[in-house]
Design a protein that fits this description.
single chain, about 160 residues, alpha+beta, 7-stranded antiparallel sheet, 3 helices, about 35% strand
Length: about 160
């Protein structure tokens, strides 16, 4: 089992992923790498699909959407059920500045960390959680070597 801890597209467009592999119940080994190989187009689509949730969670006007570029996601797992929580980091292009504005969403969880009912303000939007899991699937493919280049020669 693999779980993602952080995924980032660096300023020089490398892919950086920190992930964990479960070695036994309750014990995880952590791995981290940065690679120049381009990811599959679906990876970049999955990153881009998070932009509307940056707008929503940062309470920004909808018309800012075209100015948002998601750059990374930091992930945590907490509570008895190892509930996933995430912070999305993006950059917003500014019209009166030569550099972008860095935006971090509030850290929100996919579900309640305990048996108590969750405060809706602390939860990720359901569709955002689905989008995050699609990104994590793309990360796992990247980790396993499934990247943009693909195989030049298929062996029959």
């Amino acid at each position: 089992m693999i779980r993602i801890r952080k995924v980032k597209v660096t300023s020089d467009n490398k892919i950086s992923i920190t992930h964990e592999k479960q070695v036994r119940t309750g014990s995880w080994d952590e791995y981290s790498f940065t690679c120049s190989d381009q990811a599959r187009p679906e990876f970049y689509q999955a990153m881009g699909s998070l932009a509307p949730y940056v707008i929503q969670m940062c309470e920004l006007p909808d018309e800012y959407l075209e100015r948002i570029e998601v750059r990374s996601v930091s992930v945590s797992y907490g509570g008895e059920n190892e509930v996933m929580g995430a912070t999305i980091t993006s950059q917003m292009k500014l019209s009166k500045s030569n550099c972008n504005l860095n935006l971090n969403t509030p850290h929100k969880a996919s579900d309640s960390y305990s048996d108590a009912p969750a405060d809706e303000k602390q939860l990720l939007p359901e569709k955002c959680t689905e989008a995050l899991y699609k990104l994590y699937d793309e990360c796992e493919l990247y980790i396993n070597g499934d990247r943009a280049q693909g195989k030049l020669f298929d062996v029959a």
